[in-house]
Amino acid sequence: MITPGQQGDITTAPALLEGVPARCVLADKAYDSNALRALIRAKRARAVIPSNRSRKKPIRHDKAIYRRRNQVERCINRLKHFRRFATRYDRRAARFLAFIHLACAMQWAA
User: What is the pTM of this model?
Assistant: First the structure.
Protein backbone atom coordinates (compact mmCIF):
# COMPACT_ATOMS: atom_id res chain seq x y z
CA MET A 1 0.00 0.00 0.00
CA ILE A 2 1.25 3.44 -0.86
CA THR A 3 0.28 6.31 1.41
CA PRO A 4 -0.15 9.75 -0.13
CA GLY A 5 2.48 12.44 0.42
CA GLN A 6 3.42 13.04 4.02
CA GLN A 7 0.71 10.83 5.53
CA GLY A 8 2.04 8.47 8.19
CA ASP A 9 2.15 4.76 7.42
CA ILE A 10 0.44 3.82 10.68
CA THR A 11 -2.92 4.67 9.09
CA THR A 12 -2.57 1.70 6.71
CA ALA A 13 -1.12 -0.73 9.28
CA PRO A 14 -4.48 -2.35 10.21
CA ALA A 15 -5.28 -3.05 6.55
CA LEU A 16 -1.82 -4.51 5.96
CA LEU A 17 -2.14 -6.84 8.95
CA GLU A 18 -5.61 -8.04 7.91
CA GLY A 19 -5.61 -11.72 6.97
CA VAL A 20 -1.87 -12.14 7.54
CA PRO A 21 -0.90 -14.79 10.10
CA ALA A 22 2.00 -13.78 12.34
CA ARG A 23 3.66 -14.71 15.61
CA CYS A 24 5.38 -11.34 15.97
CA VAL A 25 4.84 -7.94 14.39
CA LEU A 26 7.99 -5.81 14.25
CA ALA A 27 7.74 -2.05 13.83
CA ASP A 28 9.56 1.11 14.82
CA LYS A 29 8.52 3.76 17.34
CA ALA A 30 6.24 5.49 14.83
CA TYR A 31 3.85 2.52 15.13
CA ASP A 32 3.57 2.71 18.92
CA SER A 33 -0.16 3.12 19.53
CA ASN A 34 -2.53 1.37 21.88
CA ALA A 35 -4.99 0.70 19.06
CA LEU A 36 -2.39 -1.05 16.90
CA ARG A 37 -1.09 -3.05 19.86
CA ALA A 38 -4.66 -4.17 20.62
CA LEU A 39 -5.14 -5.25 17.00
CA ILE A 40 -1.92 -7.27 17.11
CA ARG A 41 -2.96 -8.85 20.42
CA ALA A 42 -6.34 -9.79 18.90
CA LYS A 43 -4.46 -11.64 16.15
CA ARG A 44 -2.71 -13.61 18.91
CA ALA A 45 0.63 -12.16 17.90
CA ARG A 46 3.27 -10.33 19.88
CA ALA A 47 3.99 -6.65 19.21
CA VAL A 48 7.73 -6.00 19.06
CA ILE A 49 7.53 -2.22 19.01
CA PRO A 50 9.71 0.09 21.11
CA SER A 51 7.80 2.65 23.15
CA ASN A 52 7.61 6.21 21.98
CA ARG A 53 9.34 8.75 24.24
CA SER A 54 6.04 10.46 24.94
CA ARG A 55 4.59 7.34 26.58
CA LYS A 56 4.44 7.81 30.35
CA LYS A 57 4.91 4.13 31.15
CA PRO A 58 7.20 2.47 28.58
CA ILE A 59 6.16 -0.93 27.25
CA ARG A 60 8.95 -3.50 27.09
CA HIS A 61 9.85 -5.23 23.83
CA ASP A 62 12.11 -8.14 22.88
CA LYS A 63 15.36 -6.49 21.81
CA ALA A 64 16.79 -9.66 20.25
CA ILE A 65 13.82 -10.02 17.89
CA TYR A 66 13.78 -6.27 17.19
CA ARG A 67 17.38 -6.46 15.94
CA ARG A 68 16.22 -8.71 13.08
CA ARG A 69 14.21 -5.78 11.75
CA ASN A 70 17.59 -4.35 10.73
CA GLN A 71 17.81 -6.86 7.85
CA VAL A 72 14.62 -5.53 6.32
CA GLU A 73 15.74 -1.92 6.83
CA ARG A 74 19.05 -2.61 5.06
CA CYS A 75 17.19 -4.16 2.11
CA ILE A 76 14.94 -1.12 1.80
CA ASN A 77 17.98 1.15 2.08
CA ARG A 78 19.62 -0.65 -0.86
CA LEU A 79 16.42 -0.25 -2.88
CA LYS A 80 16.40 3.48 -2.15
CA HIS A 81 19.57 3.80 -4.23
CA PHE A 82 17.22 3.46 -7.20
CA ARG A 83 15.90 6.99 -7.66
CA ARG A 84 12.68 5.72 -9.16
CA PHE A 85 11.99 3.72 -5.98
CA ALA A 86 13.02 6.42 -3.52
CA THR A 87 10.86 9.13 -5.09
CA ARG A 88 7.92 6.88 -6.01
CA TYR A 89 8.27 8.10 -9.56
CA ASP A 90 5.55 5.78 -10.86
CA ARG A 91 2.05 7.07 -10.21
CA ARG A 92 0.29 3.74 -10.66
CA ALA A 93 0.73 1.17 -7.90
CA ALA A 94 1.03 -1.70 -10.41
CA ARG A 95 3.97 -0.03 -12.17
CA PHE A 96 5.64 0.83 -8.86
CA LEU A 97 5.30 -2.79 -7.74
CA ALA A 98 6.72 -4.01 -11.05
CA PHE A 99 9.77 -1.79 -10.57
CA ILE A 100 10.20 -3.07 -6.99
CA HIS A 101 10.32 -6.61 -8.38
CA LEU A 102 12.89 -5.57 -10.98
CA ALA A 103 15.04 -3.73 -8.43
CA CYS A 104 14.93 -6.71 -6.04
CA ALA A 105 15.99 -9.04 -8.84
CA MET A 106 18.87 -6.70 -9.68
CA GLN A 107 19.97 -6.62 -6.03
CA TRP A 108 19.72 -10.38 -5.74
CA ALA A 109 21.81 -10.88 -8.90
CA ALA A 110 24.53 -8.44 -7.80
Answer: 0.70
